[in-house]
Design goal:
- Helices cover about 45% and strands about 5% of the residues.
- It contains 17 helices and 5 strands.
- A 5-stranded parallel beta sheet has the order 3-2-1-4-5, with helices on both faces.
- Helix 3 packs parallel to helix 4 and helix 13 packs across helix 15.
- Bound molecules: flavin-adenine dinucleotide.
């Protein structure tokens, strides 16, 4: 039998891009021939602990688009993307054996489900197989922050000041100029929403996120927001908006599944600053990216505690779990029309503004006193931009079990008057016929 020598495997997870991807870069440097794989893990489409589907249709559709775009980009390099609707521990060992692969390249993840899956894969393959894991999801790479993970401060400002002073954002890793020397046959196909047990749907006409998944559309949005419209230059003034596509960057869904890297956003902001000048808004977008990094470091430091009821602060509160109350919140039937409008937007589009998220989460945990993990789990299901660290980090923060030293509560009626003074946003979702 002819030996199929030295093919490497790139296992894509939440790094669905070819530009600024250190995993792909390392693999292309080490192998003349590569194949790649992505697994739609059936567990991601089943119900989670609190009964919500772990991934609802909005993010699933975005993911399908993202993987489809990645497949096209890799094909341009002669790299076949094998796509499975199966657990990685079933499909990857077979792929390794079929192509006699001994080296696997992947993004380093640390949350329990991802860790468990990797361990399962490793337990089913020879111990000679080597796995090369790289962090590609940070703005400030863990090797550059000059701080041990155990020393990550409890207060964001302390972390931000430290990285701003001591760390530097690494330059971008260019898209590899690569052509795999062996092109292999590949009969796998991308699943449909129906294959994932989800219904196809039309995008809601009022969606504030009317974009498709994939690296190409990520770059289009980045260019549009930063350079074409120069909206970045007024970001600080508009970022608390509630309606439309342009009050904030809307980059989070691409950042969450890794079709866009945080470094790419950073270096484009820097380019904008060079060309058009620096101001508070350009700084503030980077400030928000540091929040994103912070919650990743918090989850690295505290591990599973980010999913615990008492959170990383180990705080004891009385929590309710009344299903009727939870359903009122989900279906926009609470006593607050501002909360209701935001919840209906989420239910119908998979999107909610940052201002909305803060208010509905505070209302859920501090006014209704409901178990914050149920709200977080509902967000996990619905959000197009769900990111485990940002979601659980923000939920803990708002619910008083995380990184907010002051344990504040949002006055949702005051917030509605401040951020939706004419009621336009509330009417949009509560009385859509008016628009
Ligand atoms: C309860 C709650 C749950 C959340 N869940 C998620 C989630 O699952 N996934 C997610 O990406 N964000 C989450 N966020 C953070 C924030 O609401 C979104 O990142 C933001 O609304 C996305 O819109 P944008 O891309 O236009 O953000 P912009 O305002 O344009 O900000 C630019 C980028 O900075 C990052 N960022 C901004 N605010 C935050 C923040 N508070 N925490 C962490 N990163 C931030 C995001 O990557 C964002 O794309 C949550 C916030 C709350 C209060």
């Amino acid at each position: 039998m002819q030996k199929k020598q030295n093919i490497g495997l790139v296992w894509f997870r939440n790094d669905l891009r070819v530009t600024d991807n250190d995993v792909l870069h390392k693999a292309t440097s080490n192998h003349e021939s590569l194949i790649a794989c992505y697994c739609f893990d059936p567990r991601h489409f089943q119900n989670g602990t609190f009964g919500f589907k772990k991934t609802e249709k909005f993010r699933a559709k975005f993911l399908i688009d993202s993987v489809s775009d990645l497949k096209t980009s890799l094909k341009g390099m002669g790299i076949e993307l094998f796509i499975f609707l199966d657990k990685p521990e079933n499909s990857i060992p077979k792929l390794l054996e079929e192509w006699d692969i001994s080296k696997v390249y992947l993004q380093k993840e640390w949350t329990p489900e991802e860790g468990h899956v990797l361990n399962q894969v490793k337990s089913r393959v020879s111990s000679t197989i080597r796995f090369f894991e790289s962090y590609t999801q940070f703005l400030y790479h863990p090797e550059t922050i000059e701080m041990k993970i155990s020393e990550i401060p409890m207060v964001f400002t302390d972390f931000r000041k430290h990285v701003e002073k001591h760390a530097r954002v690494r330059p971008l890793t260019a898209k590899p100029q690569y052509r795999s020397s062996k092109v292999v046959p590949n009969a796998t196909r991308i699943p449909t929403l129906a294959d994932l047990g989800l219904q196809d749907f039309e995008r809601h006409p009022l969606s504030a996120f009317p974009f498709t998944g994939g690296e190409r559309s990520a770059f289009q949005r980045l260019n549009y927001y930063i350079f074409e419209t120069k909206k970045l230059g007024v970001y600080k003034k508009t970022r608390n908006g509630l309606i439309g596509t342009n009050y904030s960057s809307k980059l989070s869904p691409w950042l969450a599944n890794g079709s866009l890297s945080a470094r790419t956003v950073y270096w484009n902001v820097k380019r904008f600053e060079e060309e058009h000048g620096k101001n508070q808004s350009t700084y503030w977008l980077i400030f928000e990216l540091i929040w994103r990094d912070y919650f990743k470091y918090i989850s690295l430091k505290y591990g599973n505690s980010i999913f615990h009821l008492r959170g990383i602060r180990n705080r004891e509160y009385e929590w309710e779990r009344d299903v009727r109350e939870i359903n009122k919140w989900i279906n926009g039937k609470t006593g607050s029309s501002f909360v209701n409008a935001n919840m209906l937007e989420l239910q119908q589009t998979g999107w909610m503004s940052n201002r909305g998220r803060q208010n509905v989460a505070s209302y859920f945990s501090k006014d209704m006193r409901l178990d914050w993990r149920i709200g977080a789990s509902y967000f996990e299901s619905l959000l197009i931009d769900y990111d485990v660290h940002s979601n659980y980090g923000n939920w803990m923060y708002v619910s008083g079990v995380g990184n907010d030293p002051r344990d504040r509560k949002f006055d949702v009626e005051w917030q509605a008057r401040r951020y939706d003074p004419s009621g336009k946003f509330q009417n949009l979702w509560l009385q859509p016929t008016l628009f």
